[in-house]
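Inputs:
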Amino acid sequence: MREAVHVEKPYFLGTLREWLFTTDHKKIGILYFVTSFVVFLIAGLFGLLVRFEQSIPGFQFVDPKTYNYLLTGHGVGMLFWWAIAAHIGGFGNFLLPLMIGAKDVAFPRLNALSWWAFFAANVLFLMTLIPGNQIMTMWTGYPPFALNNDAGLTALYVFVVHLLGASSIATAVNFLVTYITMRAPGVTFFKTNLFVHTLIAANVIQLVGVPSLAGAVTMLFLDKYLGTNFFNPAKGGDPLIYQNIFWFYSHPVVYVQVLPVFGFYSEIIPVFARRPLFGYHSMILAVWGITAVSFFLWVHHMFVSGVPNWVRVLFSYTTLLIAVPTGIKIFNWMLTLYRGAIHFRSQMLYALGGVFMFLIGGLTGLPLGMVAIDLGVSDSLFVVGHFHYVLGMAITLGILGAVIHWFPLATGKFFPENIGKLSFWLIFAGANVFYFLQMVVGMLGNPRRYPDYPPIPEWTTLHVIQTIGALILGVGVLVFAYGIIKGLTSGQKAPENPWKSPSLEWKVGVPARAHGHGEHPPKVEPDWHPYRYDKEEILK
Amino acid sequence: MDVIALPYKWWAEARNVWLIVAVVIYLIVAIPGIYFIYKYRYKPGEREIGDHDFESHTGLEALLTVVPLLTVIILATYSFVIFKKIRTVPDGAMTIKVTAFMWGWQFDYLDENGKVIKTVVTGYHANDYNLQEFEKPVIPAGKPVRVLLTSMDVIHSFFVLPARITEDAVPGRTTYMWFQINKPGEYWVFCREYCGTGHSHMFSKLKVVPPEQFTAWLYGDKKAVAVKSEN
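Outputs:
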């Protein structure tokens, strides 16, 4: 508390130069989040255009090539920016040192380098908007299609992955070292916030997995531009090698994407139920269980690709196994509500809505893991609807809830509560209409990645209603974006520790002091725990 | 006969089993969840702080691990049993070799010795879903058909909508699947593996006719086919 006497400039007041060349974890976190949020809006717009095109049979708004570009951009933008960088780069940077009582991350300059590599990838991504630079590989970049001229500039896709990969590996090393060596005395493994656990688990996956993805796309680049034959069957190559290497990382990456969001739920739900997180230990074991099992599931993306039958059955078992640790997490969130004193602040709505959507997403994942059913729905819109429940919405609701929750810490002001609630109900209602019917039309057989489809009446009806849902969802996201601006400009000033949480990030003031915990780690009492609350009145 | 197609019958059965299990699990989780959200609302003066004693319960947590574990093992094993039926080609199935290309398929009807009897090619129709009669592959009703799949360029797939079965067509490999349609008529076939500009117009219509009509078609008597094509 020594610093409290002299008034210091808030961390966010600085020149453009200070912002761009910063090594401060808080500023880097904000830079990551703002970039990701802008890409989220662009990729969301791409998604809406894709949705409009599918509303009725025929080509109305875009030609198939543009459609394929929009769909590729939607996938790449949402998965690599929004679903990874927003919470790992954004919230991870901002919160990790504060939650474990450290001064900053272990290697602040390496952290700045991560951000710059990430920013360079961003420039390449935006370059695809220039006519003639489109990539139509889809986010998966499967050869031999990616080697074909119809796929556009595969090189851009490869370099985006390389830059993001370099950035992710640097971040992963940085965060792991930070967590292992810089925790304040008393913050032990079983007294660490769930968000930190999930963040570290996600970065372990990144460290192990990203090199495999980088290798896959490097071979793609060599094949297309330098004439090698890794994936060319005519010269002894095999396109399925790519799928195996690609999914070896890109299946675990869904846990990179979703684990930190589980962390958000686990932070927000106890605070607003005013009750310790139920089964804290089993939650941690479940996180690490998911991390371990996540590397043994990848073939379920290749169930119809011609792999041997026994491999399909084996991976069917491992895939369904992941339901056990994820199930534990859902049960524990529900049991945290039991005998709570629940406040319905908007971030609590986001967290609970996210859990309910994740529950539906998990249950609709079962038939995709049950290989007998998957043979009939593989590559249909059912798959698309399913992963928009688990990845799309569970993640988006989690991140938006987290924005509201830590808005006072980052800005010193509250996110406008009414706008928070309104945006939640719009997004929640729109998304459920949209993605549920997408799964229904997929069950009826509608293939995915189709700009056009035959005039089958029930398909058209379902598509029209989906588009209405998507519009409501889009309006909800815009309302939320408006809430950020309104909160920044005219938000209500927040007091110290507004949610009355014992978690360490709230011990650095509101907004967070420029030097965070400073040189001296916060004093942690032996009976301290991040999820124990007292009777203090929480802000209504 | 009620069964319109195979493996659709088994697929639908497995899907229904999943649907029942999923709805039951959903209700088991969501009903208490919604009830807790309603019952344990913050109430000034009455419920201001949550319970801090019931933080964990080894027995309950073990139960909530073991029951899901058993459930998924049973589901996976059930799926294994169905999968075996779906992937085992019945004896006496006729064979069609399907070669995919951007954007269509070539259907080669093979005899027992692997010799091509007849070839049908479905071409690319960029703007509509109408096919000429000669572009439609014909198969006999009520007879199992084995499909051997490969591709000339990129990866495609072959999805028979009424049978709910898909398999990829991978260049340099031959993959297989089988299906059977019992009711004569015309049925959609789609490509479900992304293959570029023409992906959504890579389709065909499978013409299912009575066996005797099929034999006539296969060996060249075209008039016999024209008699009954819609049903």
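Remarks. The CA atoms of residues 3 and 82 of chain B lie 16 Å apart. DSSP finds four helices and eleven strands in chain B.
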